[in-house]
Amino acid sequence: MSGIPVASPVYTLGDWQGNVVDEYGCVWVVETEEGWSGGPPVAAVVEDREAGDGAWTAPGSFKARVITLSGQCLAPSQTAMVAAKDRFAAAGDPYDLQDLVVEELHLTRKAAVRLTDRPDPTDKGSRAFTWTMTLTAGDPRRYAVEPTIVTTGLPASTAGRTFPRTYPRSYPQVSGSPGRVTVVQEGTYQMCPAVITIRGPVIAPEVVHVQSGRRLGFGLTIGWDEELIIDLGAGTALLNGSTSRVGDMAPGAAWFLLAPGINSLRFRGRPGTVPAGMEPPPLASMEVVAYSAWV
Questions:
Q1: What are the backbone dihedrals phi and psi of residue 84, each rounded to the nearest 5 degrees, phi first?
Q2: What is the Cα–Cα distance from 59 to 28, expressed in whole angstroms?
Q3: pTM confidence score
């Protein structure tokens, strides 16, 4: 159950929320925040020059994002305060990733986090306590809550067709012109992952990132009832979600990530075959699922 906001931003981690009055009448106020509103730490590559002034620098990288929230909780009774402490202690999880959702005045974004330090509540009288929560996002990006989803078919085989169809599988609604889609990244992160799903029948499928010129092709045939799931961030390509086909990458194939702004992707390949008598025949398609991401 969502609480009633008392300040901005509102933080949500599982059933716990900060800067709200929760369903039990407890007021959770976030007084300090570190690690969310600014950029993540940087792993810099800097080496002093042996002769002369200055240093040699090389491209660095962003490190994990560590987020520390602290504040106070005021409960309507001592019993409610004790129960609130129990709920707070159970909010974070060191085992599994959870989404920390931050609803700010201009954007609502999320990060996948784990609890990396013990929750630390300290009593302040009979109805209040202070608290601290430390979370770590291994992926330092702050993502949009809702994804961008676009689909297209092969340029030579999808004109005049309308998705979805069932054969007996469901195919997504095609968006954009056949063989090409545009993904707009509204964030500021220079390298944004995406998941591309290619559904057969298609021979030697290829995805081209127009802006970078990189091509990601595979020397394989995807059957009419199969799909190849390509995770650009993880660098994996799984046939039907289980069998790795990275080894089938075509010569010259190169991984790519999405950049801020407009990303044009082209879908190429040769139409595959379908069982005789199947009308209308299923058509190959490419679906792209991406989340805008911020530093």
A1: -65, -40
A2: 41
A3: 0.88
CA dist 97 and 68 (Å) reads 16
Q: What average pLDDT score do residues 22-49 get? A: 95
Instruction: Catalogue all structural domains in the chain, each as residue range(s) with its CATH number.
Output: 4-140 (2.40.30.200), 148-294 (2.60.120.860)
Residues in the chain, total: 295
- 81-104 tens-digit pLDDT: 999 999 999 999 899 999 999 999
Tell me the pairing of strands 16-18 and 27-34. unpaired
Average pLDDT over residues 30-51: 93
Q: What mean pLDDT is predicted for residues 150-162?
A: 67
**Distance between CA atoms of 280 and 234, rounded to whole angstroms?**
36
- Taking the C-alpha atoms of residue 232 and residue 207, their distance in angstroms, rounded to an integer, is 11
Neighbours of 113 (CB within 10 A): 24
Which residues on adjacent β-strands are paired with residue 243? 239
For 219-232, what is the mean pLDDT? Answer: 97
Q: DSSP letter string over 89-135?
A: HTT--SSS-EEEEEE-SS-EEEEEEEEEE----EE-SSSEEEEEEEE
- Angle among Cα 68, 70, 72 to the nearest 5 degrees reads 165
Helices and strands per DSSP (H, E), number in the chain:
1, 25
CB-based contacts of 50, cutoff 8 Å, min separation 6 = none
Tally the C-alpha atoms within 13 A of residue 182's C-alpha that lie toward its C-beta: 6
- HEC string of 194-245 equals EEEEEECCEEEEEEEECCCCEEEEECCEECCCCEEEEECCCCEEEECCCEEC
Alpha-carbon distance 232 to 68, whole Å? Answer: 30
| pLDDT of res. 156 | 59
- At residue 63, the pLDDT reads 97
